[in-house]
Design a protein that fits this description.
Elements lengths: L2 H26 L5 E5 L6 H17 L3 E5 L6 H8 L7 E6 H11 L7 H4 E16 L10 H10 L5 E4 L5 H13 L4 E4 L3 H10 L4 E5 H9 L4 E5 L24 E9 L4 H15 L2 H9 L3 E2 L5 H21 L6
Parallel strand pairs: 1-2, 1-3, 5-6, 5-7
Antiparallel strand pairs: 3-9, 4-7, 4-8, 4-9, 4-10
Helix pairs in contact: 1-10, 4-12, 7-12
C-alpha cells in the first residue's frame, strides 16, 4: 500500500469519527461536573431558577451541576466569564433580559460579549410579568392606566417612577410608557428592587413597574395599587386586573430567564440539555413553584425558539433605549 492510500485511509477514518462525534457527545454527556454560572446574587429569582434546573439535571444524569454566583456589572461579569469558557457543555449559565437583550445596546462596543455571537441559547425557562403600581396615598385619584396617562399629560415631569437600576426591565417599561403616551416622568434608579419598593411604600417616589413576585404582597394588603399587568393577556394570579394593553394596545414589558452555553457548544449537547430542561419545565410542581415567585414557566421552548426570542427582544428594546437616549450608569 502506498503512502497516498494510507493517508486517504486515515483521513477517511477521521472523517467517519468526526461524523459520529455529535451522537457520541450526546450519549456521553455529562461525564463530569458541570459549572452553572449565575450572574446575579444569591437569593433572587434568577438564583432560584438556576438552582432548580441544576438540581433536576444532577438528579437525572447523576453528575454534579454546581451553581456559582458571580454577580456584578448588571450581569456582565458572569456572562463574560461564560462567553470565554470552553464550548464543551461543562460551563452553562442562566441569564435574563438585561444581560441578554439590553446590555448590547446600552454598552455598545464596551461590552465584552454579544449574546447571539458568543452564546448558544438552550431553553427559555420563564417569563416574569411586570405590573404597574402606584402609591395610593400619593396618588389617591389614580385608579386606572387611563387615569395615570391623563394625569401625566396634564402634569408633565411632575411624577417620579422608580426602578431596580438603569437598563432593568422595570426602567425600560417606564421609558416605554412615556414614549407610547408622549408623557414625561422623572426616573429614579435604585440598586435593586428592595430599596425601590421601600421608597415607593414610603412615598418618596410615585409609581413603578415591578416584577409580580415582589409586588403582589403589597398589592394584596393595599399598601400599593396595581393599575395593570404589562403582559399581552390577563393573568390567572389576578384575572380581575386588566392589562396595560387594554388601554394602550400592544404594550408589553416583561422580564424573562433562560439557559445558555458558550457559542460553538455541540448542537447534540445543546439539544440534550434543552430536552431535559423541557421535561423539568412541564412538571406541575415546577409550574406551581415558579408561579409563587411570580413567573410563568415556558413549557415548550427550544434552542431555535429561544434564539429568535432573544433577537426580537434585543431589537425591541434597542428602539426604546435609543429613543430615550438612555445611557449606562
Amino acid at each position: 500500500m502506498n503512502r497516498r492510500k494510507v493517508l486517504v485511509g486515515v483521513a477517511g477514518l477521521a472523517g467517519a469519527a468526526l461524523a459520529r462525534m455529535p451522537a457520541w457527545a450526546q450519549e456521553q454527556y455529562p461525564s463530569r461536573m458541570v459549572m452553572v454560572v449565575c450572574p446575579f446574587p444569591p437569593g433572587g429569582a434568577a438564583d432560584v431558577f438556576t438552582r432548580m434546573v441544576a438540581e433536576h439535571l444532577a438528579a437525572t444524569w447523576g453528575k454534579p451541576f454546581v451553581v456559582e454566583n458571580q454577580p456584578g456589572g448588571g450581569g456582565i461579569i458572569g456572562m463574560t466569564r461564560v462567553a470565554r469558557s470552553a464550548p464543551d457543555g461543562y460551563t452553562l449559565t442562566l441569564s435574563s433580559t438585561g444581560p441578554l437583550a439590553v446590555n448590547e445596546t446600552l454598552y455598545g462596543d464596551k461590552l465584552a460579549y454579544h449574546t447571539l455571537r458568543d452564546f448558544a441559547p438552550i431553553y427559555q425557562l420563564t417569563i416574569t410579568p411586570n405590573v404597574l403600581i402606584v402609591n395610593p396615598k400619593r396618588l389617591p385619584t389614580i385608579k386606572t392606566v387611563a387615569d395615570l396617562v391623563d394625569h401625566l399629560k396634564k402634569n408633565p415631569g411632575q411624577l417620579s417612577f422608580g426602578s431596580a437600576g438603569i437598563g432593568t426591565s422595570q426602567h425600560l417599561a417606564g421609558e416605554y410608557l412615556q414614549q407610547v403616551t408622549g408623557t414625561r416622568m422623572t426616573h429614579i434608579p435604585y440598586r435593586g428592587t428592595s430599596l425601590m419598593l421601600t421608597d415607593l411604600l414610603g412615598g418618596q417616589i410615585d409609581l413603578a413597574f415591578e416584577n409580580t413576585g415582589p409586588a403582589l404582597p403589597y398589592i394584596r394588603n393595599g399598601d400599593l395599587r396595581a393599575l395593570g399587568f404589562a403582559t399581552a393577556s390577563r393573568l390567572d394570579i389576578d384575572p380581575g386586573l386588566p392589562t396595560i394593553a387594554e388601554t394602550l394596545p400592544g404594550f408589553e414589558a416583561t422580564a424573562w430567564h433562560g439557559y445558555l452555553a458558550p457559542a460553538a457548544t455541540s448542537p447534540a449537547i445543546v439539544d440534550k440539555l434543552a430536552k431535559e430542561i423541557r421535561v423539568f419545565a412541564n412538571k406541575p410542581e415546577v409550574i406551581s413553584k415558579c408561579a409563587e415567585l411570580g413567573a410563568i414557566v415556558q413549557v415548550d421552548s427550544s434552542p431555535a425558539a429561544f434564539r429568535t426570542f432573544i433577537a426580537d427582544e434585543t431589537q425591541r428594546w434597542k428602539k426604546v433605549i435609543e429613543a430615550g437616549n438612555i445611557k449606562a450608569g
